[in-house]
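So, can you check what follows?
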Amino acid sequence: MTARRAGRLRPLPKIGLRWKVCAAIAVVSALIALVLSLVVHNAARASMIDNSRDVQNERVQFAQRIYDSTGRLTIDAQLNDPALPAPLTRLAREGKRATFVADTGGAPVVWAETPLADGKILSLKTTFTDRFSVLEDLDQALVIGSTAVVVGGTALGVLIGGQLSRRLRKAAVAAGRVADGETRVRVREAIGGRVRDETDELARAVDAMADALAGRLEAERRVTADIAHELRTPVTGLVTAAELLPPGRPAELVRDRAQALRTLVEDVLEVARLDGAAEQADLQDVALGDFVRRRVAAVAPSATVDVRDDAVVRTDPRRLERVLANLLGNAVRHGRPPVEVTVDGPYLEVRDHGPGFPEDLLRDGPSRFRTGSSDRGGGHGLGLTIAAGQTRVLGARLTFRNALGGGAVARLLLPRD
């Protein structure tokens, strides 16, 4: 039973920054209002009690003067009252006049006593209900004021927290766009520059980091493109010279390696162009089913094509052909037959039955000059990188996964219009 209940536990819901700020301000406002209310209440009560003591002291003195001169008791005065509190009785026997406050839960009872010349004790007992009814009104006003402070503070917290939360969300969205390759996006512009606070400092730091990263990537791209461009001419000459060698096994090996080197240089140049984000697609309406059948028959005749639902997509045929050829080449070279190509509406899927994609590729995506696991074979690792780059130019989406029954699956989603 315990294990079953433990399996049903769910993570706590995420609490946004707006509500955290709102809760913090509400709690602080409530604490401040409570402390101030207690201070004001106690101060007012103490002042009223002191005032009642003074009034009762004056009244008992007046009653004493009347009794001494006329022998009559006035203002409800009592002689030797048996209910007189013990502290007052003790002080009266010592010849001292005093007052005493008995707290009964409501309006307190105020006693006053004074010793007489004949040894008797004259005392008064009064409950100042009218005076302490004001304290109830004060408490009611304090409750209303405290509630207004808490509600106002909460509303202010919602406004402040909401503004800060919106700015942080905009910053997160802009930073995500930068991470997706939109190097022209600036976080500070996305959140607005009118408010000067920590979010503005964060945006400046992220933009500076993005600028520095973009500069380094551009420098690396230029170096890569320059090196590949400089190699292009001598490699072309090497391929031409290899064709002039006399027939034989050594000549075939030289031609094969020269052609591989030429392909590598062309691939590096293509990657450099794609990294430059200057490539534009020449979009046309393409019937995807017929297009795939023709290209697969030319690139990988052993692969099977299954058109479940044909569709007309808006794409660049040359770039789509490049993506399809690279996916098929990767499946043939690194996987195992049969290689299956499926067209289902705007979706194009290429699957082999080999060991599947390595975990780092599934997690991070294709990376140049990384071939993955040794089970997938060798190679310079640019095929999937070029396919991913061409996919971005097409405005399509390319995902990678491993099939449950084994094998690698590359799935391309093309825009319809």
